[in-house]
Model the fold of this input.
Amino acid sequence: MYATGQHSGHACVEAVNVTVSHDNWATYHVLKSDGGKMVGNDVFADMKRATDAGLNKHRTVVFEEGVDTYFGRQLQKQLDIDYVYANELDIADGAFVSLVGPSGCGKSTLLRMVAGLDEISSGEILVGERVVNSISPKDRDVAMVFQNYALYPHMTVAENMSFSLKLRRAPKSAIEQRVKSAAEILGLHELLTRYPRQLSGGQRQRVAMGRAIVRDPQVFLFDEPLSNLDAKLRVQMRSEIKELHRRLGTTTVYVTHDQIEAMTMSDTIVVMNKGRIEQIGSPLHLYDKPHNLFVAGFIGSPAMNMLKGGIVIDRCPFFVTDDGVRLPIERAPTASDGRQVTLGIRPEHLEISDEGIETTVALVEPTGSSTQITAKLATQEVVGIFRERLQVAPGEMLRMKPSPAHIHLFDRETGKRVDC
Done:
């Protein structure tokens, strides 16, 4: 399937071509410039030739224009996006995929477009083998769990869970069996006669999940379902959702601004920023090999330390900060002497050593299992996490040494990763 078209030039979220399927379909974007001119023709032609030659016969490949959506004036000004960026998003059958990014990045909008709650202005969305652009939300075979639970207050737990099946005029015996089965899975069997006002926040969220489960959809869509819960309950529900996915095996797309949730629950993470996809990969791949400064700073808590400086080759490669502090690095790109870069090092990859660089302690945060220290390296701030219970106080000197094997380099101008 091939689709082309002119880009409107309006502010839009790059929602990517989404293909969620039971046959591991792939969807590819065709890169277009601001004026709508095709600039990805070589990639497009190569993929088309491969398909025509039968090289992709074991996997259906869909070529189509990016999915765009338009926002209200306020969000248009906030995002200020007027192009479609090239990306590939492949959601396999049974996968758990998280969309993460800061508030306003477009992740919930993308989810709502898959659900059919927001209209798209161009492109196609596929669920399984069906193009669902013109299909109403109730007929897309997807089930969505909202942040605010959206339970009917005048209905019992059982009535809330069975409501969608009653609208479909499902047989009474089938409704009772599905509700009973979902209640057993979620531990709600003793609460079926209660009303939402009689439930805790965690119980209400389970009811919302149960309402989705009874529909037996192809895809579960979760829109920040845990953000209204306290910290302890979020951890508990996180485990329950992951276990639920393991038991049911249903394809799941999960939106969250909490990257720890995404890291612990997902097979694949999609990092979004200002309506664009920055990187797609497994949690550990994103953690170990961030493509750019945004992903490096967003994935990981505390965030990766970023030091501005440049590369100096003096028999061995060094990183020299803007303040003149020299840090040894294992290797540097070819012909990179004098190149301006940002050095990234995660807090847990700093170690205390007599051979380290002198820093001044600014803040000490003991957590019991570790000690988090914020310090000044000349004029730049660094955060270190140490497993020891360090007896240091603000104002004292502490020598820290970055692990050379765990240093990341990013181009100062583009923000993109520099591979050595």
Notes: Residues 1-66, 69-87 have pLDDT under 50 and may be disordered. The longest strand covers residues 350-366. The longest helix spans residues 231-248.
